[in-house]
Amino acid sequence: MANYAALGHYLPYLLGRRLRAVVWPPDSGERALALLLLGLMGLYGVGFGFMLNHQDQRGLAEVFPKMLVALNAAWLVSTLLIDFLPTLRPVTRPLPEHFPVSERQNVVTAFLLDLITLRRLLLVLGLLLALLVAPRHALVPGFSLLLIVGATVLSFNVRLLVTLGRWRHPLLAANLLSLGLMGWWLAVPTAPYSPALGVAMALLPWLVGAAQLYWLAPYFSARYLPAEAATTVPSTTLARLPLEWKVYLHKVWLPLTVGFVFKAVLLSITGLAMIKNSRVTNPGLFYLGLLPIVSFTYVNNNLFAYLGSLTANELVRLGLTRRLLALYLRLVLPVLLADCLLSATLVLALFPASMWHVLGLLPLASVALLSIGLWASLHHAKPVIKSIDFANMRNNTSGAMSATSLGLGAALYFLPWWWARIALALVVAASAAWPLHQVLRNDGALRRKLWKGIGAG
To answer: Least enclosed by CB within 10 Å: which of 62, 282, 315, 442?
Structure first.
């Protein structure tokens, strides 16, 4: 019989490997994007700490409480979105059945591994830096950290119940009570009982998790776990669509849903709580919701690889032709139009008229992102071999081209001169002339590169 105590080395190894995979992935493009996001969030954290140190200033004192509520709400929503959109991410056993490790140890290991995601690391990094910059106001980022950790525990508790098929278990009500306490704490930031309520909303998910570990963890084995069901678009929804749309939506409707939800949540929070004197107080996040960037970074920067066999069949029969370009436009343009219409609707409904001029960025960004998407789909295609869920969708497109899309959006938004914005958009759009020329002359090198990039050979 193996000694259980001697198996303790597996946990540091698994946690270290998970952390390295998230912060320092093997692909250079993904690594650069991860480091870029960590650096940007570090800057956001320093800026948040600076605002905490100067919150008593006249201009900031009025808007800061509302902004803090909106930030905490955004952090809570984003923490839950990681696990519940576009589909609920089940809890899986980290160790094989034949390992002499108890079910409770498997649950604890699964939870610790579940904590380490890039999005959670970004949020925690920003708040820790704010804590270091503004130690006198440590309670503000401290309670935000408790909120994020508590929401993570709550998410794991609910997903464990779902994984075990225990939807009707009484502990589900306790988890819903935890979520209600978090919402209550967000709604009364200035109440005298707010600190005590914050402690309660942070501790209750841990207590519920301990109860689940005691009562339900013994069922965390293959003997009791139900078979995993695949999540697909209902066939009736796709029945009347053209073939390319059937293939496209079958693969990408979940990432696109996440993109639209992200846009709606971010623009709604900004329009309702982050406008001061006709100016956005969080421009670094606002431009991500305003411009049609997410649909490209998640899907359309790798369109031909998502189409898979459809692209491979086209290359085998005809090679690179106008049909491939028409296919790109037929699929990307409607999504781009829907993205821009959603942005325009939310801006017109929630933002003051003095800010409507930002809608002029939508056509400029659309033209430029179409060009980057064509470059990325042809020259930086990569096989879509990973399951498409909220935690790893970014890994199914080129990290370098995703960073390019983000950088382009930031440049278009933050440049102070409209002539410079128009010139930048036109230059980027004109750069598509080269891949267009390659496709129209059926360039052999590009054809072989695309064939290999989509994983066909």
So the answer is: 62
- Domain's final residue, options 219, 245, 266: 219
- What CA–CA distance (Å, rounded) separates 450 from 369? 20
Whether residues 345 and 389 share a domain: the answer is yes
What is the per-residue pLDDT across 282-304, written as a single tens digit (0 to 9) for each?
777 788 888 888 888 878 888 88
Same domain, 99 and 159: yes
Pair 210, 256 in one domain: no
Domain that holds residue 436: 237-453
Q: In whole angstroms, give the CA distance from residue 306 to residue 290.
A: 25
Question: Which residue blocks in 118-242 are alpha helix, DSSP H?
Answer: 118-133, 139-163, 171-187, 194-215, 235-238
Q: Which residue has the tokens 């980027």?
A: 428
* Contact yes or no for 343/271 (Cβ under 8 A): no
Any domain includes 230? no
Tell me how many helices (H) and strands (E) the chain has: 20, 2
Assess whether the previous peptide bond of 86 is cis (omega < 30° from 0): yes
For 133-188, how does the pLDDT look when each residue is reduced to its tens digit (9 = 90+)?
888 888 888 888 888 888 889 889 888 888 887 777 888 888 888 888 887 877 77
- Domain's final residue, options 189, 219, 249: 219
Burial of 26 by CB count in 10 Å (0-12 exposed, 13-18 middle, 19+ buried)? exposed
Q: How far apart are CA 182 and CA 381, in angstroms?
A: 42
> Does any domain span residue 109?
yes
Identify whether residues 208 and 262 lie together within a single domain: no
Task: Quote the tokens at residue 199.
Answer: 């402690």
pLDDT in tens, 257-267: 777 877 887 78
| Contact predicate 290/333, CB 8 Å | no
Say which residues have a Cβ less than 8 Å from residue 9's Cβ, sequence separation at least 6. Answer: none
How crowded is the C-beta side of 204, counted as CA atoms within 13 Å?
22
Token pair recorded at residue 239: 């029945």
Contact present, 252 and 304 (Cβ < 8 Å): no
Tell me: do 135 and 248 sit in the same domain.
Answer: no
In contact, 49 and 130? CB cutoff 8 Å: yes
